[in-house]
Design goal:
By secondary structure, this protein is an alpha/beta fold. It contains seven helices and ten strands. Helix 1 runs parallel beside helix 2. It is globular and about 50 Å long.
């Protein structure tokens, strides 16, 4: 059974009311987004499908962004609000309990991040909250990317985390949404395992492409690799 909280160096994630708990790949993704966002001239950030609020908090720790977090599930949104309120950056974080398709802000966003439902068209969990969080039943991939296009500033960057096995679907959906991949990180759980996640930086306009990189979370001995450590060391207590 997952712990009811996950403690990091500068904040704690309470997760007993959220269907999807904190994961290593989620933390790696949040750290990657934060590392890309801390040195740019950006003001507004958006977290689509906030869950526990982990991504928003990781980005807030490293940047001066004001972040809106959108979460459709009432329990998860309430827990996100609690995690925000108990963090050092409460004045820069706001949660909105709504469907992203009904979210109408008075601005576009310099930075968007999303760890969206993973397994569209696959067998869903009988528990509704977990099913919405883990599957695409609440928000289809094409619909999600259309909302990213709608809400992203012309010179902004959106960061997305997806299963590696959905690469072909993702490529087609990005093209349909008019989004261009600037950078792709292929994530392996270890040096002996195949890839299981893709971390993407996408834009609305043509840009110089950084290309594709590979990151292994752990080495053959089961220890965090230097690449993973460099991203997670500002957050994990034991690094």
């Amino acid at each position: 059974m997952a712990n009811s909280y996950f403690r990091l160096k500068q904040f704690t994630i309470k997760q007993d009311r959220c269907a999807m708990k904190v994961t290593t790949d989620g933390c790696l993704f949040g750290a990657w987004v934060a590392s890309h966002s801390k040195d740019i001239a950006a003001t507004n950030g958006l977290d689509i499908g906030a869950g526990t609020g982990l991504l928003s908090l990781m980005v807030a720790q490293q940047t001066g962004l004001y972040l809106d977090a959108v979460e459709i599930d009432a329990d998860a949104a309430a827990q996100t609000a609690q995690n925000f309120a108990e963090s050092p950056w409460a004045n820069r974080l706001q949660v909105h309990q709504t469907d992203i398709q009904r979210f109408i802000p008075n601005k576009q966003y310099d930075v968007i991040c999303s760890n969206p439902p993973f397994y569209e068209n696959e067998l869903a969990s009988p528990k509704r909250g977990r099913s919405i969080a883990h599957h695409g039943s609440g928000l289809r991939l094409v619909e999600l990317l259309a909302q990213v296009n709608r809400l992203l500033a012309d010179d902004g960057t959106a960061y997305l985390l997806f299963p590696a096995k959905r690469a072909a679907d993702l490529e087609a959906a990005l093209a349909a949404a008019g989004l261009i991949v600037q950078q792709k990180i292929v994530v392996h759980p270890s040096e002996t395992h195949p890839p299981f996640r893709l971390m993407l930086a996408v834009k609305k306009n043509s840009v110089e492409q950084i290309g594709e990189q590979t990151v292994y979370i752990k080495d053959k001995g089961g220890y965090y690799t230097p690449a993973a450590t460099s991203l997670l060391q500002d957050y994990y207590l034991f690094l």
